[in-house]
Amino acid sequence: MPSDVDLTVRPATPEDADTLAALFLDARAAAYPAIPHPVHPPDDVRRWMRSRFDAPATELWLAEDRGSVVGLLLLEEDWLHSLYVSPDRTGDGIGTVLLDLAKSLRPRRLGLWVFETNLGARRFYDRHGFVELRRTDGSENEERQPDIEMAWPGDRTSPPR
Description:
Helix 1 crosses helix 2 (42-51). The chain contains four helices and seven strands; from the N terminus they run E-H-H-E-E-E-H-E-H-E-E. The strands form two sheets. A four-stranded antiparallel β-sheet has the order 1-2-3-4, with helices on both faces. By secondary structure, it is an alpha+beta fold.
């Protein structure tokens, strides 16, 4: 991570929801075509992000640099639902910090889905110990795009949660 980064990671609050939704949308837009455009309009994404604070077994974290939100992590049970970094901060190590947090919070196992076309994310997760479990044709995801289920097998020395 560059030395001029002053990164803080903390649990997100409902007051952060709109900022996190904006980051989610910006990151998705910047990653196109590796990641398909969201199928829901921005207002629906904002509502969905706000709803995550009331969802059971869900944790939402954010990374800030000098008060600006630069990353988000959404965990649902033992699934990494979302990990996004501000497009202008990709490569600064923020994703690694958030992924390390996710692993520490889910030491036994962590699963995720990644679009087949998202080669950068696939390489990132592979570097961090995730393995491919299966591929699908995308018929079960909202975007209808081929995807890959990956998992981090966890630290086998950790006691069960």
